[in-house]
């Protein structure tokens, strides 16, 4: 069933009469189809993960700003550590006027199953310009974004001992890219929430909490005002929570949540949010515990995964100056290695990052330090090289989170 038909007949009775598979198809429409107003449904038939002789092939998308230089450093760290990952480099120019390069990237990710990327956003405010990050997530049905914000003991911050995981809806909500100018000077934007996507997000969040021994899940919403959209999201999370009696569930309105994060962040454990609220909450928490340069983000779907710096900042102003903080990108590569099952290499690299930040305190300027990007990278490579000399191998074990 075409998305246009659903939009034109957007009533409670009409939605309830739709079959579940029709909702799934509508929820997974291509971002390109939505943007160009000619929607078609797509069926995902993922290929096996690209693995040859124990080595994985991963799509690498440097993006703009500081992305290319950080990817160069990442490849050097992997080379020194003997990490069995090969990269298929795909250039996506944020300033490009067409989407051909983005289509190439999507094809590569579908082939390899996993990608690591910098920021590919256009930054354009012009109507009709496709959001590339949103398009990528929608096209691959990466319905959940995970951001783990845990304090670094070696970094001075407003609050200590913070450990919060944000599970964010990644493909709908206000970022469904359904907006238009009905008459001159009047713009309408549609916020889309489906029970199908809300339920699989909530299930992911509670399973994530269960797997990681988390005790509390908080749903962030604005259901007191947006009673239908956020009301559906909240009610779905409440329904799913009943399947997990050992995990406490609560909910909080987004504006109060932001205030509580600043004043008392330790009350939070795992947070479930819609798309826009997740963006806001993520940046607030990152600001509390050290900034955008420390934390990685994970994007998951049923078939594909993309890893990237958590706040998706391009860093154009500091590109080429050797002052960018590489920790977020390297942490994203650790998440990627864990996803691929290279646990030994992941543990070594994570330990090197922790030692560099917390013990050796090799900090870039954004953390109040005096060191350059290459100083951080060199220290990490030295630690990785030392650890690999006495490395004890463990069997390959692939994991989702």
Short synopsis of the structure:
With 401 residues, this protein is α/β, with parallel strands linked by helices. Helix content is 41%, strand content 17%. The strands form two sheets. Strands 1, 2, 3, 4, 5, 6, 9, 10, 11, 12 and 13 form an eleven-stranded mixed sheet that branches. The protein has a two-stranded antiparallel ribbon with strand order 7-8.
Secondary-structure map with pairings?
Layout: H1 3-8, H2 12-17, H3 20-27, H4 31-35, E1 51-52, E2 55-61, H5 67-81, E3 85-89, H6 100-112, E4 114-117, H7 132-139, E5 144-150, E6 163-169, E7 179-183, E8 186-189, H8 195-211, E9 216-221, H9 229-241, E10 248-253, H10 254-263, E11 270-273, H11 275-288, E12 296-300, E13 305-309, H12 327-340, H13 343-359, H14 373-389
Parallel strand pairs: 2-3, 2-4, 4-13, 6-11, 9-10, 9-11
Antiparallel strand pairs: 1-2, 5-6, 5-12, 7-8, 12-13
Domain Isopropylmalate dehydrogenase-like: 57-380
Subcellular location: Mitochondrion
Pfam families: Iso_dh
What report would you give on this structure?
This protein has 401 residues and is of the alpha/beta class. It has 2 domains: 49-121 and 130-145 and 293-389, Isopropylmalate Dehydrogenase (3-Layer(aba) Sandwich); 157-288, Isopropylmalate Dehydrogenase, CATH 3.40.718. The chain is 41% helix and 17% strand. The chain has helices spanning 3-8, 12-17, 20-27, 31-35, 67-81, 100-112, 132-139, 195-211, 229-241, 254-263, 275-288, 327-340, 343-359, 373-389, and strands at 51-52, 55-61, 85-89, 114-117, 144-150, 163-169, 179-183, 186-189, 216-221, 248-253, 270-273, 296-300, 305-309. The strands form 2 sheets. Strands 1, 2, 3, 4, 5, 6, 9, 10, 11, 12 and 13 form an 11-stranded mixed β-sheet that branches. β7 and β8 form a beta hairpin. α5 runs parallel beside α14 (373-389), α10 packs parallel to α11 (275-288) and α13 crosses α14. The protein is globular, with a radius of gyration of 21 Å. The model is unreliable at 1-43 (pLDDT under 50).
């Amino acid at each position: 069933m075409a998305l246009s038909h659903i939009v034109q007949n957007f009533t409670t009775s009409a939605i309830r009469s739709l079959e579940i598979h029709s909702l799934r198809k509508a929820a997974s429409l291509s971002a390109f189809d939505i943007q160009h107003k000619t929607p078609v449904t797509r069926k995902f038939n993922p290929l096996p993960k690209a693995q040859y002789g124990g080595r994985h092939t991963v799509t690498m998308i440097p993006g703009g700003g500081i992305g290319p230089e950080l990817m160069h450093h990442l490849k050097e760290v992997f080379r020194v550590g003997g990490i069995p990952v090969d990269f298929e480099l795909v250039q996506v120019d944020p300033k490009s006027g067409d989407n051909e390069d983005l289509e190439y990237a999507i094809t590569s990710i579908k082939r390899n199953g996993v990608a690591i990327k910098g920021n590919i956003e256009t930054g354009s405010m012009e109507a009709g310009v496709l959001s590339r990050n949103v398009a990528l997530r929608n096209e691959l049905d990466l319905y959940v974004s995970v951001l783990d914000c845990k304090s670094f003991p070696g970094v001075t911050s407003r609050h200590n001992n913070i450990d919060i995981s944000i599970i964010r809806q990644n493909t709908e909500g206000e970022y469904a890219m359904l907006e238009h100018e009905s008459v001159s000077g009047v713009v309408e934007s549609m916020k889309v929430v489906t029970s199908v996507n809300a339920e699989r997000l909530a299930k992911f969040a509670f399973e994530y909490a269960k797997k990681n021994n988390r005790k509390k899940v908080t749903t962030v919403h604005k259901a007191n005002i947006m009673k239908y959209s956020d009301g559906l999201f909240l009610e779905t999370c409440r329904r799913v929570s009943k399947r997990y009696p050992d995990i406490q569930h609560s909910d909080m309105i987004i504006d109060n949540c932001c205030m509580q994060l600043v004043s008392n962040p330790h009350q939070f454990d795992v947070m479930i949010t819609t798309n826009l609220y997740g963006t806001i909450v993520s940046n607030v928490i990152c600001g509390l515990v050290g900034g955008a340069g420390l934390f990685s983000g994970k994007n998951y779907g049923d078939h594909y995964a993309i890893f990237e710096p958590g706040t998706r900042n391009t860093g154009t102003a500091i590109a080429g100056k050797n002052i960018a903080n590489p920790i977020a990108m390297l942490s994203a590569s650790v998440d990627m290695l864990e996803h691929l099952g290279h646990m030994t290499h992941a543990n070594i690299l994570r330990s090197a990052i922790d030692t560099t930040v917390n013990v050796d305190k090799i900090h870039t300027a954004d953390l109040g330090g005096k060191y350059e990007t290459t100083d951080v990278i060199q220290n990490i490579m030295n630690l990785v090289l030392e650890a690999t000399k006495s490395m004890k191998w463990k069997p390959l074990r692939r994991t989702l989170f």
